[in-house]
Amino acid sequence: MNPRRKKRLFTVLAVIFGIGSAVGLTLYALQENINLFYTPSELVNGKGPELEKPTIGQKLRIGGMVVPGSVVRNETSLDVEFQLIDTGPLVTIRYQGILPDLFREGQGIVAQGTLIEPNVIEAFEVLAKHDEEYMPSEVAEAVKGIKHEKPKYNLNSEN
Amino acid sequence: MWKWLHPYAKAERAYQLCNTLLPYFVVVSVLCIVVGWVWGLAYAPADYQQKDSYRIIFIHVPSAILSMGAYSSMAIAAIIALVWQLRNAELAVIAIAPVGAAMTAIALITGSAWGKPMWGAWWVWDARLTSELILLFLYLGVLSLFHAFEDKKAGGKAACILAIVGVVNLPIIHFSVEWWNTLHQGGAITKFNTSAIDPSMLWPLLINILGFAALVGTLTLIRLKNEIMQVEQHRPWVRQLVSRG
């Protein structure tokens, strides 16, 4: 390689390296802000090295798993209340509206809303999160031993 | 070692190489996309959770992968164009850019259409979606920079520099779902150790990815041929080619 090309190649590589590290450091500094949501334990115990807790009335997103058996629907309105969990503490979500198709007990969801008590959120948007596993239902039954069915919308067990 | 490559720096040889390669790319892309789509959309089993809605994966994932693949090829061409000052490499950059931009747009649109029924939102500003949107802007930036200059040489150089700088975005897109918590799920194919995606769905997906790759190749070759012709339009070999009809 002749010296001029070598010099240009080094310049290009240096530019990539420089910009790469600049962007890398920026993202590292902003790390906490790029996360889309709080997890229930971050909400209750605080987040980051300083264990910062969100204040009451703050708008935020929270992501976690819907605790099985915690979904309570109001029979006369669209109000619904359920609890979210990740590893420890529970957070209660109140929501009024139609839940996405994938919403189930045991499903990961992301809710956006206002913190009204330290562990209660009044959500105005509930999004379902799904994982990267795709399989036919027979395989899912065999592997996971679960039958994925939508939760019953009618809470009266008599009919 | 690289001596065999040298003749292709000449526009005429590069043009001939495009012509030789083109039929293979056309055959592979048509074959794979037809087989992949029919298999994926009609015969692959429905997902246990998302039922038939997941089938958009056979368009979304290949186009998303290729949007990044096309960008890396474009960046490699840009490095070659800047370091070795080969005009053919510069033409390759400008030939790939709109194809990659189209792939990115397809990935974003299909992703959005998938997100609405499954997540419940057309768009969420999470790290994966945002960085993919930035990729689209990078493609558009490369294209517009190239055409913004009166002087073709300056335009080409500026476009190449932007293409190289934008490479930083590729690892961000890829690892965004691991570094931060996002609404977008993690990668299914790159998880080799676990069966994240059932073989009955994985095979049509892989065929589709190959088909999309060949499609990007096909479109790029056709565009590259046009670019070469346009730049060399006053040369005798082009005139001969045109007069032969």
From TrEMBL, chain A:
<keyword id="KW-0472">Membrane</keyword>
<keyword id="KW-0349">Heme</keyword>
<keyword id="KW-1003">Cell membrane</keyword>
<feature type="binding site" description="covalent">
    <location>
        <position position="130"/>
    </location>
    <ligand>
        <name>heme</name>
    </ligand>
</feature>
<feature type="topological domain" description="Cytoplasmic">
    <location>
        <begin position="1"/>
        <end position="8"/>
    </location>
</feature>
<keyword id="KW-0735">Signal-anchor</keyword>
<dbReference type="GO" id="GO:0017003">
    <property type="term" value="P:protein-heme linkage"/>
</dbReference>
<dbReference type="GO" id="GO:0005886">
    <property type="term" value="C:plasma membrane"/>
</dbReference>
<dbReference type="GO" id="GO:0017004">
    <property type="term" value="P:cytochrome complex assembly"/>
</dbReference>
<feature type="topological domain" description="Extracellular">
    <location>
        <begin position="30"/>
        <end position="159"/>
    </location>
</feature>
<dbReference type="InterPro" id="IPR036127">
    <property type="entry name" value="CcmE-like_sf"/>
</dbReference>
<keyword id="KW-1133">Transmembrane helix</keyword>
<keyword id="KW-0408">Iron</keyword>
<keyword id="KW-0479">Metal-binding</keyword>
<dbReference type="GO" id="GO:0020037">
    <property type="term" value="F:heme binding"/>
</dbReference>
<comment type="function">
    <text>Heme chaperone required for the biogenesis of c-type cytochromes. Transiently binds heme delivered by CcmC and transfers the heme to apo-cytochromes in a process facilitated by CcmF and CcmH.</text>
</comment>
<feature type="binding site" description="axial binding residue">
    <location>
        <position position="134"/>
    </location>
    <ligand>
        <name>heme</name>
    </ligand>
</feature>
<keyword id="KW-0812">Transmembrane</keyword>
<dbReference type="GO" id="GO:0046872">
    <property type="term" value="F:metal ion binding"/>
</dbReference>
<comment type="similarity">
    <text>Belongs to the CcmE/CycJ family.</text>
</comment>
<dbReference type="Pfam" id="PF03100">
    <property type="entry name" value="CcmE"/>
</dbReference>
<keyword id="KW-0201">Cytochrome c-type biogenesis</keyword>
TrEMBL record, chain B:
<keyword id="KW-1003">Cell membrane</keyword>
<comment type="similarity">
    <text>Belongs to the CcmC/CycZ/HelC family.</text>
</comment>
<feature type="transmembrane region" description="Helical">
    <location>
        <begin position="127"/>
        <end position="146"/>
    </location>
</feature>
<protein>
    <recommendedName>
        <fullName>Heme exporter protein C</fullName>
    </recommendedName>
</protein>
<dbReference type="InterPro" id="IPR002541">
    <property type="entry name" value="Cyt_c_assembly"/>
</dbReference>
<dbReference type="GO" id="GO:0015232">
    <property type="term" value="F:heme transmembrane transporter activity"/>
</dbReference>
<keyword id="KW-0812">Transmembrane</keyword>
<feature type="transmembrane region" description="Helical">
    <location>
        <begin position="91"/>
        <end position="115"/>
    </location>
</feature>
<feature type="transmembrane region" description="Helical">
    <location>
        <begin position="21"/>
        <end position="44"/>
    </location>
</feature>
<dbReference type="GO" id="GO:0017004">
    <property type="term" value="P:cytochrome complex assembly"/>
</dbReference>
<dbReference type="InterPro" id="IPR045062">
    <property type="entry name" value="Cyt_c_biogenesis_CcsA/CcmC"/>
</dbReference>
<feature type="transmembrane region" description="Helical">
    <location>
        <begin position="201"/>
        <end position="222"/>
    </location>
</feature>
<feature type="transmembrane region" description="Helical">
    <location>
        <begin position="56"/>
        <end position="84"/>
    </location>
</feature>
<dbReference type="InterPro" id="IPR003557">
    <property type="entry name" value="Cyt_c_biogenesis_CcmC"/>
</dbReference>
<keyword id="KW-0997">Cell inner membrane</keyword>
<dbReference type="Pfam" id="PF01578">
    <property type="entry name" value="Cytochrom_C_asm"/>
</dbReference>
<keyword id="KW-0813">Transport</keyword>
<keyword id="KW-1133">Transmembrane helix</keyword>
<dbReference type="GO" id="GO:0005886">
    <property type="term" value="C:plasma membrane"/>
</dbReference>
<dbReference type="GO" id="GO:0020037">
    <property type="term" value="F:heme binding"/>
</dbReference>
<comment type="function">
    <text>Required for the export of heme to the periplasm for the biogenesis of c-type cytochromes.</text>
</comment>
<feature type="transmembrane region" description="Helical">
    <location>
        <begin position="158"/>
        <end position="177"/>
    </location>
</feature>
